[in-house]
Amino acid sequence: MAASDSDNRTKASVPDSVIFDVDQRTGFMASEEPLTRLPEPWEPWESTLDAAVDARLQLGDKPGITAEDIDRSSVWRVRVRELPFLSVEGLDTPILLRRAHVVLTYLLHFYVQSLPPHDEVRIPRSISIPTVQISTKLDIPPLLTFSDTVLYNWTYRQAGELTPTPSNIRYLDTMAHVINELRVLLLDVKKLCDPNKYYTEVRPWFRGEDSDINHRKWVYEGIDDYPELKTPTELSGPSAGQSSIVHVLDLFLGVDHQPVTSDQPSFMSRMKLLFLDHLASNPRPLREFALASGSTDLMVAYNHAVLSLKAFRDSHMIIVTLRAARTAPTAEQVPSYESLKGTGGTDLVEFLKGTRDCTKDTLIN
């Protein structure tokens, strides 16, 4: 019994922010500014990534790609293949591991997506093995994820600048207000992001094996020499579905997504998944509470929050379909509504409609 009490005291002494990697100021973003460069022993990785950016590498399947572009990409890939094999020993803190994952997976995607479209995808041992080793330590897949492109890949515009976050959400009307603010931010993409540039010059770099236009398999060279490492199988690209925030809202509001399947949560960091599992195991029965209360005001407030989440998902669908249409060269080449794919390779419209309908079904009649 004494040992059990000791264990309980130990668990109670560890702040939730440490266990779940969720910060009261920054939410699901890193609580401290992410590392912008690895220490000197791993400088070859950093300098090779710099070289990729400086060379302005082009997608291997880019229409009209020039011979000069092809040669420049080829020279850079030779540099990757000739990288020294660097040990991951010493990368033993979360901030170092996250930076290493960002650098290595961007190298990996630059390498794969700059290949000619019919070339075999063989990721050189110089980056394949450390990528899998670091990913195993972090318990996330060995390719770009939402964490690499967003959560741990930012810096302050001015050193030390920190935007205060709202106080903890205590009431349903506040939750509805916050969700509406998220919707406004989502719709701002129409003003701040050129769809043609995004879909043709940015998004393709994020494709994983699941989204490869020629269905090529990604081979991580040297993986068989390390029996302790598993051959990667989860190889979808980064997606906003890997963000924790909407999953948390669903859990708080009791939105049941059982009819809709998605593997996106498996691409989250271990701590974020632990947080979601904790919420799911300790549900906040807001819907049941509102029903049992018999209070019309409370049920209206609950429905207001649910409708705000539905409106957020409606806006997402509108943006996806309109922007896909705008990126087609001709009217005849506009993709069908049902054929649209998410960044992570999901059947996008079917998935979005499913989540939207599940949200609507949560309303109290």
Q: Mean pLDDT, nearest integer?
A: 80
Global Rg: 22 Å
Uncertain residue ranges: 1-15, 159-169, 259-264, 328-338
Order of helices and strands: HHHHHEHHHHHEHHHHH
Fold topology:
Layout: H1 2-13, H2 16-20, H3 43-54, H4 67-81, H5 94-113, E1 121-123, H6 125-138, H7 146-151, H8 172-187, H9 189-192, H10 195-202, E2 218-220, H11 245-253, H12 270-281, H13 286-293, H14 296-327, H15 348-361
Parallel strand pairs: 1-2
Helix pairs in contact: 3-5, 5-6, 8-14, 10-14, 14-15
Describe the protein.
By secondary structure, the protein is an all-alpha fold. Helices cover 51% and strands 2% of the residues. It is built from 15 helices and two strands. The chain has helices spanning 2-13, 16-20, 43-54, 67-81, 94-113, 125-138, 146-151, 172-187, 189-192, 195-202, 245-253, 270-281, 286-293, 296-327, 348-361, and strands at 121-123, 218-220. Strands 1-2 form a two-stranded parallel sheet. Helix 3 packs across helix 5 (94-113), helix 5 (94-113) packs across helix 6 and helix 8 runs parallel beside helix 14 (296-327). The longest helix is centred in the C-terminal third of the chain and has 32 residues, at 296-327. The radius of gyration is 22 Å and the shape is globular. The chain starts with a helix and ends with a helix.
